[in-house]
Design goal:
The complex is a heterotrimer of chains A (about 450), B (about 300) and C (about 290). Chain A is α/β, with parallel strands linked by helices and about 450 residues long. Helices cover about 40% and strands about 15% of the residues of chain A. Chain A folds into 2 domains: about 35-150 and about 320-390, 3-Layer(aba) Sandwich (D-Maltodextrin-Binding Protein, domain 2); about 155-315 and about 400-435, D-Maltodextrin-Binding Protein, domain 2, CATH 3.40.190. Chain A has a 6-stranded mixed beta sheet, sandwiched between helices. Chain A is globular. Chain B has a single domain, classed as MetI-like (MetI-like fold). In chain B, helix 4 (about 105-120) crosses helix 5. Chain B has about 300 residues and is mainly alpha-helical. Chain B is about 70% helix and about 0% strand. Chain C has helices spanning about 10-35, 40-45, 60-65, 85-115, 125-135, 140-150, 160-165, 170-180, 185-190, 195-225, 230-235, 245-255, 260-280, 280-294, and strands at about 70, 75, 80, 80-85. Chain C has a two-stranded antiparallel ribbon. In chain C, strands 2-3 form a two-stranded antiparallel ribbon. Chain C is globular and about 75 Å long. The chains are: A alpha/beta (about 450), B mainly alpha (about 300), C mainly alpha (about 290). Chains in contact: A-B, A-C, B-C. The interface between B and C is large, with 106 and 99 residues.
Amino acid sequence: MKKVLALILAFCMIFALTACGSKTPASTESAAPSGGTEITLWTYPIGNWGDEKTVKALTDAFTAETGIKVTVEYLTYKDGDDKVNTAITAKKTPDLVMEGPERLVSNWGANGHMVDISDLFDDTDKKEINAAALAACFNADGKAYEYPLVMTAHCMAVNYNAFVEAGADQYINKETHTWTTEQFLKAVDALYAKYGDTVGAVFCNGQGGDQGTRALVNNLYGGTFTNAEHTAYTWDDAKNIKALKTLYDQNGIAYDASIVGGDEIANFYNGIFKMAFCWNIAQQLNPNSAGNGAGKTANGDEIVFMAFPSEDGTAKLQGGIWGFGIFDNGDAAKIEASKKFIKYMCDSAKTVDAVRASNFFAARSAAEGTDLSKVWADNEVMNEYTKLMPMLGDYYQVTTNWATARTAWWNMLQKVGASDGSEAAITAAVNEFCGQANGK
Amino acid sequence: MKQTMSPRLRRRENISGYLFLLPSLVFFLGFVVYPMVSCIYLSFTDANMDANTPTKWIWFANYVELWQDEVFLKGLWNTIIIVLVSVPVVCIFSLWVASAIHKMKEGPLSFFRIVFYLPVITGSVAVTVVWKWMYNNYYGIFNYLLKGVGVIDKNINWLGDPKYALACIILILLTTSVGQPIVLYVSALSNVDQSLVEAAEVDGATNTQVFWKIRWPQIMPTTLYILVITTINSFQCFALIQLLTSGGPNYATETIMYYIYYTAFKLYRFGYGNAMGVVLAIFIAILSAIQFRMAKEK
Amino acid sequence: MTKNNGGSKAYRIICVVVLIALAILFLFPLYWILTGSLKTPNAISSPIPQWWPQEFTLRNFEVLFSKRSAPLFEIGSLVGPTVPGAIRWLINTVFMAVMAMLLTCLTASMAGYALAKKRFTGRGIVFSLIVAAMALPKQVILIPLIREMSSLGMYDNIWAVILPTVGWPFGVFLMKQFAEGIPGEMLEAARIDGANELRTFTTVVYPMIKPGVGALAIFTFINSWNDYFLQLIMLTSSSNLTISLGIATMQAENSTDYGLIMAGAALAAVPIIVVFLIFQKYFTKGITMGAVKG
């Protein structure tokens, strides 16, 4: 026993002595070979940009070409924001971060932690980049805090086999991927009659997948989330309240405060839910953990992606835009290296690979002569998905106070779910949290 | 204790006392007292994550706001409930288990001791994730069992329902809190003077009388110690909240400890979060002082 | 309350039955972790639980080990071979817990002795501070602590977790209680023999408070192993995580892949449980000692 203890002690002592010396490990600064800078990238799980092997292949290629070493950390939607915010508090942010304008521009950018990269956009870029994506990357003062790589429209998905079994397939148009509010409610009724359990869940535990619940509520009766100028939140209008109440009253739809978007997807894969509101093309292409191929649930049911239901059947889908931003660490060399990284991933002959890794559409038509509109030409699912792209609605996630608004939205859904479901209670909850988002 | 000391001895006592205290004091002052002081300082400012606007000194505005903040009050309330429920339940439960096992043979005795201690050892995160699975709304074991015996007829969303969420959290907290008190009570009970017990029994005292008149006073110091450690423990249930409910649903499981974290990293209001911290610290210091007084008196 | 007269037999049987039921309840989560880590995803999410895995799979451990990688060690510029992240996390955790334990025992036993036996000026104030801070949740000083560690250059370094753990004053309090029991005459005798302070401490004081040091070592080891909060706010890069943090991250990422999460939980729990079972006697002795004196 004593020997074991002594061994452990000795081991720890050695480790301790040396760990002190490694307080500034090779991965942060200095020690790098001359000319080579080292940068860190924190990425959210955007398609396969959350997968170590895929990302390593991309960054290795970049290092081989430029000599700049990239250390990558992988964040999750559930705790990624907290991690970045902790790092900001500690003034130890990464050099690069990969996410959407809702975080980069309207949160960290607005709070003065990001580097203005408007100099990366020349006139050709501005022509090539999708107008909506371009606009979202700039703030009102003309400063850019994000360089877009890919984009998509968020949608929902249904378990087609279950729909057929419950006789609900008559309510969806598999060709156009659209349905009306009435059809949606009938389908839920049919599924509830058949399976008698939660058919779909308005997940509201927190962070991640908020676009799904927003789009669902907004589309049902044509409500809006913000005004057109992106200066105020308007989700307290009567149409949204009606939608929230409809969902509350609907058998088979539950406000579930114990799950987040990721849980919802998992429950959908497992066949527990018959529809998922947190969906997009990357999910559709993602071969799930059961390993039976993309577009299938764990027991092999067919997954069909759908636009959100609306009264006239033409939804306004929420856009997702992802790209890179640079945190202001005050080190010019690192900022320069980070800009090189952005150029390399988003605007070079290699952009094709970076786009493919994400499972989304390129945010631009061409990059340095490479045509990006054909990246997915050989992919049937992707081609099918382009049907949804014209339904892309307003990208309002750059409205002021966005981080607060997003948190308030979750709290509101929880409060609605916990209420008695009366119109008065729902209205009160909506007013309270919409007011919070508007800074009242 | 010496009544008088020569100046030389006094100096020697001072110097050696401080030298022995020094290593510990460095850590204590550096990583507890200093942050606490800057916490108090920050609580009077509007410090936040915005790098564009300078931090302003706003006196007591944060403290005034606290008492109008419903979420804070709810968090305070929940924190008090957690302490008020878990402390007595842990004490009573562990006393009962200990008195039931302390006369067993060595084998079963150490078996039970280990079993009740295991959740402490397993670690808060590992325990939390497995309970999360057991509480699951759709395929959790609780719903299956309770449906099986007919207590409920529909799945209950344990962590998603404001009615149950806090109770569920407290239940996990209890299983991870009783291990140590049981071990303590077992040894305290075995140390009770057996001759007193026998004498009382000869005099015809009932078991209840023996317990309250003889055993209880003798295990009193242990009880006080258990009160202290259980209180500390109940204030530490951060992992449970952060991993299971994030304070929801509808603030049903919000505690001050989690709300401080939430205020800092979701609302970005450092100053406000620190004001909460100061209030909590005062609250706990008073509680510790009371418990310590009690311990001193006994 | 035990009874030893005849009429209590029924009560005793009931006690044993209830105890066994409770033991099952307390053992079940651990059982569920271990079996869950070997179940297939389908079995995990089946509404009818599989009490015993019908089909064993190592898939969860494979995913766990292939998901993240990190160098085995980084000592100065010497970087070890790349291994599964989980292995590095275990090493980090052991290192953290052992260092916190050693430093706490060393500093706290010295300070406890000083507070108990030395009549120096300001002793009362120091002791009151310690008592007041003893139960302080670390959440209170969240922001200042992060900023402090960052300016010390220790943010995202395992030492940022170790140092505040050592600073927590519970250990000093515990050791003071033990040191109170040292008879003054023994110290007096050592002094008359001409022993200097350090010698007195190592030859007279330390042997007296040894059981207390054992208890404190155990507490500190378990507490720092399980102190999720400090780890959460101080560590970010995947090569610096601890095993608890690693599972929490996996939980955030694949929140319903319970098989994978259970594999992580098993990896975190099994080593410390094995240690516990080996040192079980000392554990209980240490804890008990701590209380009798305290």
